[in-house]
Amino acid sequence: MNELSSENLDERRRRLLFRSRHRGIREMDLVLGPFADAALVGMTDAELDEYERWLDIPDQQIFAWVNGSEATPDAVDTVLFRKLLAFHGAK
């Protein structure tokens, strides 16, 4: 998988890419970084808004949802979140 270059991204996507790769815990760098590499360019403004909200959620909470150790709340269980799960082969 190729790492996305921030060179040709708009400011918002550059910021989101950086935040995706530099999380509080390494596991989340590995969950969100590659997903951002693959998906940020094609995200709509609404998806960018949602993704930005994810980045304000504590890493441990998102990780628990992604690895299935906790149920994902309805407010987070969106099409975009399911894309994240599918990207990592989670159910």
SSE map:
Elements: H1 11-21, H2 26-39, H3 45-54, H4 59-66, H5 79-87
3D architecture notes:
The protein is mostly helical and 91 residues long. It has one domain: Flavinator of succinate dehydrogenase (DNA polymerase, domain 1, Orthogonal Bundle). It is 57% helix and 0% strand. The protein contains five helices and no strands. α1 packs antiparallel against α2. The two termini are 21 Å apart.
The CATH architecture can be given as Orthogonal Bundle
Number of helices: 5
Helicity range:
55-70%
Give the end-to-end Cα distance, rounded to a whole number of Å: 21 Å
CATH first level: which class?
Mainly Alpha
Task: Report the count of strand segments.
Answer: 0
Number of domains: 1
- Gross geometry: globular
CATH topology grouping: DNA polymerase, domain 1
